[in-house]
Give the backbone structure.
Amino acid sequence: INIQVLKEAMGVAQHHDAVSGTEKQQVAYDYALRLANGRNECQKVMNDAMRKLLPKEKEGPAAMEMKYCDLLNISACTLTEQNKEFVMIVYNPLGRTVKHWVRLPVIGSAYSVLDPSGNTVETQMVPLTKRTTVIPERKGHIATSELVFQVQIPALGFSTYMVKMTQGKKKLTKSSNIRGFV
Amino acid sequence: GEPFVMKNKHMSLKFDGKGNWEKLTDLHSKKSINVTNDIVYYNGMPGNCSKGEFQPSGAYIFRPNGTSPQKWTGPSSAMSIVGPLVDEVHMEFSPWATQVTRQYKDEPYVEVEWTVGPIPVQDKLGKEVVVRFETGLNTDTYFYTDANGREILRRVRDYRETWDLNQTEPVAGNYYPVNSRIFLRDEGTGMQFTVMTDRSQGGASIHDGEVELMVHRRLLYDDCKGVGEPMNETGADQQGLIIRGKMYLHLGQTLDTAKFHRDFGLKKYMAPIPAFSETNMKYQEYS
């Protein structure tokens, strides 16, 4: 029942060639709203499924509500920006193991990341571009860098990574201007 | 001011001292091609079609005013970032057209993240922005797109297989749908330059060895095809939209490249989904 909301929104959108610009602006807003509502409902379904896979509530993490960050492409995610410690669960919809690069918007200068086996994962901090910080949809978001690392996820399954801000020295990278702005 | 090379075990990309792309090398075959990259734009054709005047560019119609895109003189600034997992070059073609060229450790592609907008229209000109790659490949008017999301089709510039074409639109008449990939092949050297996209776009090869993909449009005239208003979305702050997306480039031998783009296309289509939760547990407690 819950995923029907997105199925219907997609049905309407595909039938009318939505999101292509070939509709009046008011209609484009309506298509966007339908898709967003459908996506929200599907995220609830994902949350419910995740709770079933995780340990029972009294044992710990199952009580946690998972949050999805739809604006990671513009380096905006309230949870990763406002918490010094958080858990990331990554789901792999493919029927085989994949490796995937993750970029998380953060405000700290150094982080430690543990993989599902408790091993430390190699990370890199990358500063946000000047353009990223002025995108209007980022209003209120405060990340100044992205935490970059690679995750490995089993077929049709998930991996859990624990991320923690550390006091370590800024693990940034060598950067240089090739040519100044004229 | 010094040339810069971005390199992993699969490919290397050389930049000149101004931040322009210069040479792309497949480190398996040791073959290189000259390559440049920029963001350029076509001015949209104006017109009032409801009064029987020229057909303007609009939501349904791509009709650039002229055959050469407007361009800046190269990146006005560029910055390189070098690290253990990813190297990046941040390039600014104009205040509203920027790009990050990125190469991750051990990945067989170069990533291009483009950010375009808000497109300025104070000059009363609609604009249609493309990301462009010019390679030294000898493609003999051919290029390839995945067109319908299924099979790859060979496209021939200014030519249709089933009728005699009178080409009146040298740019728009050579644009085709690109759902996930477009590529060039040089039969002489056996090299293939593949561009994978993160969304459906229009794409073309207007000159031999060149690939361009349209990433953003802002137009000031209705094209009289039924919408009834110009395609001019201003966004919440009324300035125009800022759009961001990614392309993934691969250079390899034609015989081997399908192995990359079939596999990679699936990975991008069904990408992993991250979710987050606050915690103050230790790893031992959590696990």
Notes: Residues 130 and 144 of chain A are 10 Å apart (CA to CA). The two ends of chain A are 57 Å apart (CA to CA). Chain A touches chain B through 71 residues (CB under 8 Å). Strands of chain A lie at 85-91, 98-106, 111-114, 124-127, 145-153, 158-165, 174-179.
